Amino acid sequence: MKRVLLISIILLSSFRTFAQVDTGQLGAWYMYFWNTSFGDSKFGVQGDIQHRNWNVVGDLEQLLIRGGFTYNPNQSNIKLTLGYGNITSGQFGDSDARSKEHRIYQEALLPLNFDKKVFIVNRLRYEQRFVENQDFRTRYRYNLFINIPLNGNGLGEGSLYLALYNELFLNGERNIGNNRRVKVFDRNRTYGALGYGLSKRLKLQVGYMHQVTSGVKKGQAQFSLHHRI
Q1: Of 45, 82, 171, 222, which is least packed with CB atoms within 10 Å of its CB?
Q2: Domain holding 203: CATH number?
Q3: 218: pLDDT strictly greater than 50
Q4: Whole domain around residue 217: which residue ranges?
């Protein structure tokens, strides 16, 4: 257990040295995540809606709408997803310019449960990206989620818990059109929050995420609802 926590802490604090510029402005992301299954079958659906702002409210960074079909193999906790995302991105500052992206993705969730005291999920995601005015792109993502109950075992109704994650993004292509090139490293996100179980199926998280790209670093306040329908 101590080794698992030590490795997790190292991963959650890594990749911050890539940043070159700090915008100096706190952003805010407002998010709703949902998932459900089709009765007792191995199939289901999941999705999320995220309104991301460069500032607290008003300066759009991204509007992301995403959904996918899920599958749980027999005798396994692994969840596989095939999904699609529609993303509208805005520019920092006074500009009203917008760009569009269509995204197809495949992912695998691999959960681990340590005696209901530490809940870990590994997420692997592969994306195919169709960004406006850019060449076709792909991206690889790995996310380590850690939830630690603070007032007892489990993450059910009335639970107070610490939510942590670290996610690494790697670009599959270097050329993105118009003589533009990108680095293999795309970005890294480190997140910490307090979560509360509003019910057996609904959780609230309030926290902070620090995002680092190859040229910019920025802090984001985050407010999210997690709903199992």
Answers
A1: 82
A2: 2.40.160
A3: yes
A4: 2-228
